[in-house]
Structures are given as structure tokens and as C-alpha cells.
Amino acid sequence: MRSAADTLLSLPGSPATAGLKPAAQDLLAAVDAFPPPAAEDSSPGNPAALADTPDANSSRAPQGPPTAARAGWERVSAAADVLRGELQRPGGFHRTRARGIAERLTGVTLGTAQETALDVWGAVYGVASGILHGGAAGPGEAVRLYTEILGATRELLVPLEDRAVRVLELAALQQPGAAEAAELARWADPRATDYFFRCGPATAWLEVLQEHAPHLLMPDGAVGGRWPPPRSSATSPSKI
Fold first, then answer.
1. What's the confidence (pLDDT) of residue 75?
2. pTM, whole model, 2 decimals?
3. Residue 90, Ramachandran bin (φ over 0: left; ψ between -120 and 50: alpha; else beta)
4. Are 182 and 147 within 8 A, CB to CB?
5. Which pLDDT tens digit goes with each residue over 140-176?
């Protein structure tokens, strides 16, 4: 199962450098390229120190850090941000690979609302790796992993038009529940979510989504504040 997931996530569009290990390597490389400044002798007899001492007649403006030092620090800062994010939320390597593939296939930038759908790749890969390296697993675990990766693959690779029937079925439900809300949260294609809201789902969906998948109702700052439910249609906040 891990090999199958790795093969799918190696399709074109997957970034080559993402995740904990590349971030750590980049951070170390940046640190190596940014040596500490040499200590200077600031005693009165040091000519270099005297030359750098400002006086009342000096018109020299304070100088910023050298270009190389500034570039080195920017690399350190950027790599540290990636590393910090990976430590706070492991699995970013596989999530980022899945994101790249989805964006290449759909032509749409994914936002925070799709993170739940993309998380399954890191979770499944991690469990499969643990089993591969000696972790216990029974027949039920294999079935669960197969089901999860099959569902994630469908959401990542199957074109929207081939999933439109299911979108319409969900939109037509008059009494949706937690399971249906979880299904919406697993959609990795933002076009599917947008299509769902444009279909005019029943009012009951509002309460269900607020309880089980509230992120689907919120403006998405990661993609410019996109708000899935159209404001001017039958799916406005008062009628969802």
C-alpha cells in the first residue's frame, strides 16, 4: 500500500523539494554558508577600529549587512519556517506532493479548506510505513488502508465530471448527517465544493456543516478570501 501511494504521489506536478528532510537539509546548508562574523579588536590601538570610529565631521551613513549575509539569513529564515511547520504538523511532504498533482490536474489553487482532504496521504503513508517496518497489523487494518487510499485517489485523480452525479446526490439530500459532511470534507477539488453549493443544497446542510465541517463555510484567506457558498444565489447564508 505504501508503494502504491508513493507511485501515485510521484505523478507529474509533485514538487521535488518539500517536507521535513529537505527543509532540514536546506537549513543546514544555509547555516554552513553563513559563517559567524570574525571578532574584532576594538582597543584604542587597533587601526581598523579607529578607522571605523565615527567623528563629528563624518558623513558616512550606517551600512546594512552585506548582500551575501542578507541572502544567507533569508535562506535560514525561509527554511526555518518550513521546518517549524513540519514539526507542528507532520506529513507535509506527502500532503504537498498531493497538492501539486491536484493543482496541475484541476488548474485551481487549493486553499486551507482542502487540507483535510490532503491530510489522508500523510496519515496513510505513515501507517503503511510503520507496518512495513515491523508494526502489527491485522486483516482489518489492510482493508481500512486500502479503502482510505482508494477514496483519496478518487478525490485526487478522478475528473470532476465523473463525480458530478455524487455531488448532485448529496445536494439533493434533505436530512444530511455527519457522514455526508465528512464526505464533503474529503474532497480535494475545490471545484467540487463550489459546484455543490451552486446546486442549492437543502437548508439542513447549514447546521450539519457548521457542526462537522465548519471550515467549508468560512472564507479562505489562503486563496484570496474565496467563499464557497455564492452570496447572490439560493445558497446564500440565509438559505444555504
1. 78
2. 0.56
3. beta
4. no
5. 777 888 888 888 888 888 888 898 999 999 999 999 9
